[in-house]
Design goal:
Number of strands: 3
Structural class: alpha+beta
Largest sheet: 3 strands, antiparallel
Strand content: 25-35%
CATH topology: Alpha-Beta Plaits
Helix content: 40-55%
Shape: globular
Order of helices and strands: HEHEEH
Distance between the termini: 29 Å
Radius of gyration: 13 Å
Low-confidence stretches: none
Number of helices: 3
Strand order of the largest sheet: 1-3-2
CATH architecture: 2-Layer Sandwich
């Protein structure tokens, strides 16, 4: 996904790609994944991937910069 984002030189609007590496427990990782899955159901053009490996949860979020920014704001508001 990251390589596809970087390789696409024909974007017609502002796009963002964010990678979050989160050293969280398995249970917290499941909650992170559920949060982003729920947000993707309402996003029109954003894409999300989740990977868990050795205690690290990785979230990759790409899409229109306003959608990506809003999803991240909601995520960090929830964390507060």
């Amino acid at each position: 996904m990251l390589f596809d984002f970087l390789a696409d030189t024909t974007k017609q609007s502002n796009r963002a790609c964010v990678i979050l590496d989160l050293p969280v427990s398995h249970e917290d990782g499941e909650a992170v994944s559920a949060f982003f899955c729920e947000k993707m159901a309402r996003a029109s053009d954003a894409v999300f991937t989740y990977h868990r490996d050795r205690g690290m949860s990785r979230v990759i979020l790409t899409g229109p910069e306003d959608q990506v920014a809003e999803i991240l704001r909601e995520y960090y508001r929830q964390q507060a």
